[in-house]
Every structure is written in C-alpha cells, then in structure tokens.
C-alpha cells in the first residue's frame, strides 16, 4: 500500500508538467514542448506486461513519430524479466536504481539560525534568481532540461517554491508539491560554492514549519543518492522503503551519467 500511495503521488506530480495517456499496460507521458526532459517523456510500467514485444512496439512508434527518444521507467523490476530481456534484444540501454523513500516524522529539529540568511517565497520578483540556481545544477540536467519545467511548476497552484539568500546572494532553492493530504519536497538545490555550510538545513526547517502550518499529514522526500539521504535523516526524514526501479532508453544519456558528470 505504501508503494501504491507513492506511485499515485508520483503520477500527480508528473502530470503537473506533462501529459499522461493511460494504456492497457501502464501509461505514456509526453510533453512535445520539452523533448529532452526525461520525466516528461517516458513509458511508465509497474505491472507485468502481457506481451512485451507489443508494448515496446507501441512505445517506440509513439515517441519516434514525435522525434523523442523512447524510454521506459520500470517499477517492480523483479516481475518484469520478459520485458527487460526484450528491451535488451531491441538495443535499449538499461540501468537500475535503488531509490530510498523517506517520510518526515513531524518533528522539527531546531537548529541555530545564521543571521546572514534570509528565506523567502519565490515570486515574480525573484523567480529568475531561483531559476538560475536550478539551471546550474548538473544533476538536474542543465538549462535545456530544467527551464520550461521549472516555470510550469512555478505557475502551478500545487507548488510553492522557496529561495534562500546568504549575504544577499541567492544560493539555495526547494519547493513543496502538495496533493490532497500529502506533499513532497522537490527541486532541492544549492550552488556548489555554498555547499557544506548547512544552509540547506535552514531551508528544510523553514519548509517543515510551512508543512505544519498547512496541516499536511504526510511529507515525503526522494533523495537521489545515499549522501543526500543521510542529510535528510538529520532533519527527521526516516527511510521507510527502498524501490528498485529500471530505466531503459533507446539513445541519449542515462540518468546515472547525468548525475555524476
């Protein structure tokens, strides 16, 4: 049930910046205005496919007609071996991830506030500062992959973005995505030269107060690696499960390559 709730929240999140087409085997996500953004353009499979060959044909034909690289995000990898074998035969690259899922324990860890930091909501007046930070983070894929999605999210009512300034320099961002009685923290980013100063802790604490004030029941975060997971643990996020997922792609770069370059 936890995994089902997570996937429902994930679908709601993805649909804020792309279009979802339900199929007999899962769903296709596509945003032709953002062709290089992976989360906007992928086939999502969480249940065993009846005929893997037909599923792959459907996905390849759909995306190639739009000049978009076909790719799959695959959940419940253990029951998808026939699909994975067929993907490899068809020439798809493949990588696997173990993604930690963390849930906040609703306890705010009070930390010493730096007198040189200011945290504010992102508005039309400071959105460009926040955007520049997001576009500079290599793990996010760069400006071409980030800019349009960020602006779509900024204007979407389910998102609230925050900006931290240190000595009047914009250096960290994060946002809340809210859906029903759940929310998740996204777009957590800090300029490289300001990392290691515990600024992100102040931003997380500020957002946790915001979540408390909204009476949100569950506040999730999905760290991209073990180091980030440990950071969130210091601020009350507990790892409740680990999802094994697969990414199959018929060209372009893998997610691991983007995150580690």
Folded structure, characterized:
There is one protein chain. The protein has 261 residues and is an alpha+beta fold. The chain has 2 domains: 2-100 and 243-260, no CATH class; 106-235, Aminopeptidase. Helix content is 33%, strand content 30%. The chain has helices spanning 2-14, 52-64, 81-89, 127-136, 143-154, 199-213, 226-233, 255-260, and strands at 19-22, 27-30, 42-45, 71-74, 93-104, 117-121, 159-166, 169-179, 182-190, 218-221, 237-249. Strands 1-2-3-4-11-5-10-9-8-7-6 form an 11-stranded mixed β-sheet, with helices on both faces. Strand 7 and strand 8 (169-179) form a beta hairpin. It starts with a helix and ends with a helix. 31% of the residues are buried. The model has no long low-confidence stretch (mean pLDDT 91).
Keywords:
261 residues, alpha+beta, Aminopeptidase, 2 domains, 11-stranded mixed β-sheet, 30% strand
CATH architecture annotation name of the largest domain: 3-Layer(aba) Sandwich
Topology, number of strands: 11
CATH C-level class of the largest domain: Alpha Beta
Largest beta sheet, briefly? Answer: 11 strands, mixed
CATH fold naming of the largest domain = Aminopeptidase
Please state the CA-atom Rg, rounded to the nearest Å. 19 Å
CATH H level, superfamily name of the largest domain = Gcn5-related N-acetyltransferase (GNAT)
How helical, in percent, are the residues? 25-40%
Please state roughly what percent of the residues sit in beta strands, choosing from under 5%, 5-15%, 15-25%, 25-35%, 35-45% or over 45%: 25-35%
Shape type = globular
């Amino acid at each position: 049930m936890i995994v089902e709730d997570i996937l429902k929240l994930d679908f709601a999140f993805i649909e804020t910046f792309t279009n979802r087409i339900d199929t007999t085997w899962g769903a296709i996500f596509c945003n032709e205005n953002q062709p290089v953004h992976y989360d906007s353009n992928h086939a999502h499979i969480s249940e065993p496919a009846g005929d893997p060959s037909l599923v792959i044909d459907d996905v390849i034909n759909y995306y190639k007609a739009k000049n978009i690289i076909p790719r799959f995000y695959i959940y419940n990898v253990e029951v998808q071996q026939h699909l994975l074998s067929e993907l490899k035969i068809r020439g798809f690259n493949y990588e696997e991830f173990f993604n930690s899922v963390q849930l906040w324990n609703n306890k705010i860890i009070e930390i010493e506030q730096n007198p040189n930091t200011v945290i504010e909501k992102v508005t039309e007046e400071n959105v460009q500062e926040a955007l520049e930070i997001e576009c500079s983070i290599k793990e996010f894929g760069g400006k071409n992959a980030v800019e349009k999605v960020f602006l779509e999210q900024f204007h979407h009512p389910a998102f609230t973005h925050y900006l931290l300034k240190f000595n009047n320099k914009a250096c960290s961002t994060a946002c809340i995505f809210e859906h029903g009685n759940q929310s998740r923290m996204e777009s957590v980013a800090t300029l490289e030269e300001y990392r290691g100063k515990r600024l992100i802790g102040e931003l997380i604490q500020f957002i946790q107060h915001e979540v408390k004030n909204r009476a949100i029941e569950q506040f999730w975060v999905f760290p991209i690696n073990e180091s980030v997971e440990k950071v969130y643990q210091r601020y009350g996020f507990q790892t409740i499960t680990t999802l094994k997922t697969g990414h199959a792609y018929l060209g372009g770069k893998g997610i691991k390559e983007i995150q580690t370059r």
